[in-house]
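Lecture 7, part B: from sequences to assemblies.

Below are the input chains for today's worked example.
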Amino acid sequence: MKKNDIILVTVVGIIAVIMTIIFLVTKETGNRVIITVDSKKYKEVYLKDNDEFLIETDEGYNKVIIKDGKVWVEEADCENHLCISQGKISNSNETIVCLPHKLIITVE
Amino acid sequence: MKNRLARRIAFSAIMVALAMIMSYIELLIPFYGNAFGIKLGLANIIILTALFVLNTKYAFVISTIRVILISILFGNVYSFAFSMAGAILSIIIMSLLKLMKSFSIIGISIAGAVFHNLGQISVAVIVLGKGMIYYLPVLLVSGIVTGLIIGISGGIVVKRTKKHLKHMFEYDTI
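Predicted structure of the full complex, as structure tokens:
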């Protein structure tokens, strides 16, 4: 370990902390759910409307549920199911991503 | 001279194969609760070793070929783009830092890991949209942690293999 290593880690750490603080401060409970597939807007619905739908892409499907002011992926046929383990989101800087299906769910 | 070049090429090929095996071993390690697709990056032990025991040129080629082969065998166009962006940015930064001589292998590994993640997230933003930017803090921190682990491991490997490979490669030159 040299001195510059410590400086590097500290700088990166500080950047991470600052970004986290910014995200926390600008966080707002969202009211719209925006779903993009392959960088194009696929669907936009309101967070307060309970809803359930299937997003089907060439690569597979994701079952999205909106309920009680939260949105999440209930079921999907992607390999790693990371989208499901990302849980339920309701705030403006939270996202759910399904990389294999090029799906992003954000809240605004 | 020809014999030496042949030995270097053969050795580099072994490094590529080792890097691919490390990637595979990584898949066998379960990482519960990983909602971010974070990887340990075990193959980078090989890349780091190549950088410090061989020279930068060979490390660059080994890393690049590894990405190409893994993407052809196990990936798709998107995984290729992600991996390539991360790997190239990572090796460039690591080579530059190594030239500066004021960083240890651990620092270089951490920088490599962080920039690997930055490269990948840049492609992610281009392909998937700006929502991906919220992953940056997580990726930065995981870059530090994995970079540290890989750096310590790489340091051990380098220490033990350097003297045996001295006859095959010049190191500390670009």
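Note for the exam: The two ends of chain A are 44 Å apart (CA to CA). Keep this in mind when comparing with the next example.
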